[in-house]
Amino acid sequence: MQITNDIASEPWVDDSIDPRQPNACPSPAKSCSVATATDAVKNYRENPAATWYKDNTDPNDLSGKYAFQRLRQTWFTPQVVPKFRLRRDDKFFAIGSCFARGLEQCLQKNGIGVESAAPEFSKLQQANRETSGLGFTNKYNTYSILNELRWALDPEAEFPRDSIVPLTKTTWFDPHTNPTLAFVDLEETLQRRTLMQTVTKRITDCRGVIVTLGLAEVWRDTKANVFVNRTPIPSLFKSDP
Asked: In total, how many domains does the chain have?
């Protein structure tokens, strides 16, 4: 009998989401990584940070190897065994919340190439002086991140143009972006969308990808049948509650 360390449950299905929709992400039926019992025990024994607590151990011993001791250190250092190393000449792509923008700045200040910090965005008209053009690219949930990657990289994935909504007779809103830019007409809104996907394609030129998540709930456009990036702007609740 072969025993494996394969802990997986059946996928949970939300019946409110059509499994055939192009933007639905199916749950995997089994774990992506399967280890034998022998391998699992070996990994545990070789991991110096595998144990949380041991009886009769001084919790104030800052040189101790147990987690409840290491957490008392002024600077907690997680135990990581890297499987690859990054080089200074590697390119990075950051996608996600505003924290991704901060990491872009930090990397650039250290002379590291960041493809997601595209200068094209800084030239766009901002809604106010306190925001930046790059803030337009923020993604606040895993669905919106996945959507952006699919629309840019999957030839069969088509951006749902019917999810772009009119605000006035002359302005439109792309709910898959962050509204840090001034609202513009449909043509320019679609141009921004094209620019977004052009820049996102540059992720294939990068060796390092940084993903950050924002503290935001996930909303779905039931008409266009697609998850959107963030809480809809207030004016949309008036026109389409």
From this structure: 2
Given a contact cutoff of 8 angstroms between Cβ atoms, the answer to whether 58 and 64 are in contact is yes
Instruction: Report helix, strand or coil for 140.
Output: coil
- 172 and 195 together in one domain: yes
Beta-sheet strands, E only, within 120-171 = 165-166
As a 3-state breakdown, the chain gives helix, strand, coil percent values, each rounded to 5, of: 30, 10, 60
**Is residue 15 in some structural domain?**
no
Domain that holds residue 158: 92-239
Which range has the top average pLDDT, 35-39, 188-192, 222-226?
188-192
**Residue 34, C-beta contacts closer than 8 angstroms, at least 6 positions apart:** 4, 5, 6
The number of angstroms, rounded, from the C-alpha of 15 to the middle of its chain's C-alpha atoms is 25
Do residues 71 and 103 both lie within one domain? no
Give 156-183 pLDDT, tens digit per residue.
Answer: 999 999 999 999 999 999 999 998 888 9
Output the pTM of the full model: 0.70
Kindly state whether residues 41 and 117 are assigned to the same domain.
no
Angle at 194 between CA 192 and CA 199, to 5 degrees: 95
pLDDT tens for each residue of 77-110:
777 878 889 999 999 999 999 999 999 999 999 9
What is the spatial distance between Cα 19 and Cα 13, in angstroms, rounded to a whole number? 9
HSE value, Cβ hemisphere, 13 Å, CA-based, for 25: 9
Rounded Cα–Cα distance for residues 49 and 119 (Å): 43
* Helix H or strand E encompassing 35: strand 35-36
Q: Return the SS3 of 210.
A: strand
Q: 227 pairs with which residues across the strands?
A: 220
Domain membership of residue 11 (yes or no) is no
